[in-house]
Design brief:
Elements lengths: L1 E7 L3 E8 L7 E9 L14 H20 L4 E6 L1 H4 L4 H12 L4 E2 L2 H16 L6 E6 L4 E6 L6 E5 L3 H8 L7 H23 L6 E5 L1 H9 L14 E3 H13 L2 H5 L12 H14 L4 E4 L4 H11 L5
Parallel strand pairs: 1-4, 4-5, 6-9, 9-11
Antiparallel strand pairs: 1-2, 2-3, 6-7, 7-8, 10-11
Helix pairs in contact: 1-3, 4-11, 5-10, 6-10, 7-10, 8-10
Length: 310
């Protein structure tokens, strides 16, 4: 069957259509993406403003039409931290449902972490042993750890690259004082969670998902996206330690000129790098591997697991 997954994230609204059946890996058939950066559209009261809601509804309507055009039998629609934490989330969800027919399911942060972990486990398999999975989104950082398909520990922290950039790095390039303050804040937040994971023992393999990690790996010398998903891509802590001060000194325009960095993500790259560096340092990770599968694939895999055997 052809399934559509509509991911309303903090940075983008992304429809992924896949051809899938139970027991087989889902094969991407079509992708439709629009960049909204919802995490940056929250007002002082934490609500998505009228213009942001209008744009969101129109974008979802386009995605729903694209899913229909491409023959999707069903669309699994979900939203993450930007909608989850908006003070007018109920109003936003009601408008989306009424005007587009999409019934957005709002995932909790822990659900995000668990589903992303499932995707990473299926990608790397049982031979990877105990997995530590890191995922930096626009609104939150997810961390999960475990030996099985369900993690033994999973947390979500409000350390998304878009959220931190909008709230704590106003300059272009940012002021050194703001960068230092953000670094302290990020490390304090992550450090509170380390004990929950360290008591379970060290991981056998550490992996990361998300556009932020892929871009950081790319500027550190990893292969291009065009080289395909089966090329191993790694990110080292030493590379991050080298790049963070460089990124802090760059303007958004200069970051956008780096290999693999898009115009839309360039403003967030420094905040994402600070989060990635802190997580690798505090969890004592020297090198991590980039996983091509993430939350969307986790949603698909869970749906396929629940389908009756034929």
């Amino acid at each position: 069957m052809r399934l559509g997954v509509l991911d309303v994230g903090s940075n983008t609204v992304h429809l992924l259509a896949v051809d899938a059946h139970r027991g087989a890996r889902p094969l991407p058939a079509f992708s439709h993406k629009a960049e909204l950066r919802l995490a940056e559209l929250l007002d002082e009261d934490g609500a998505i403003g009228p213009e942001g809601v209008d744009r969101l509804v129109a974008t979802i309507a386009d995605a729903v039409q694209a899913a229909e055009d491409k023959g999707c039998e069903d669309v699994l629609a979900f939203a993450t931290s930007a909608v989850r934490e908006a003070t007018n989330a109920d109003h936003v969800l009601a408008r989306v449902r009424a005007e587009t027919g999409a019934d957005l399911q709002v995932l909790t942060g822990a659900e995000e972490a668990r589903l992303t972990f499932l995707a990473a486990r299926r990608w790397f398999g049982w031979s990877a042993g105990r997995l530590l999975v890191l995922d930096i989104g626009g609104g939150s950082l997810e961390i999960a750890y475990g030996l099985d398909e369900a993690p033994d520990a999973a947390v979500s922290l409000p350390l998304g690259a878009g959220r931190l950039t909008a709230g704590r790095l106003p300059g272009d390039p940012p002021d050194a004082t703001d960068v230092r303050a953000l670094r302290r804040h990020v490390r304090a937040e992550i450090a509170r969670t380390v004990g929950e994971f360290s008591r379970l023992g060290g991981p056998d393999h550490t992996v990361a998902t998300s556009k932020t990690f892929r871009q950081l790996a790319r500027i550190g010398g990893a292969a291009r996206s065009a080289d395909g998903p089966y090329v191993q891509r790694q990110l080292s802590r030493s590379s991050l330690e080298e790049w963070v001060p460089k990124l802090a000194a760059m303007t958004t325009e200069q970051r956008a000129d780096l290999p693999g960095v898009s115009d839309g993500r360039a403003p967030q790259l420094l905040a994402g790098a600070l989060v990635a560096e802190a997580a690798m340092d505090l969890f004592d990770v020297e090198v991590l591997e980039i996983c091509p599968w993430a939350l969307r694939e986790g949603v698909i895999l869970r749906r396929l697991d629940r389908m009756p055997a034929t």
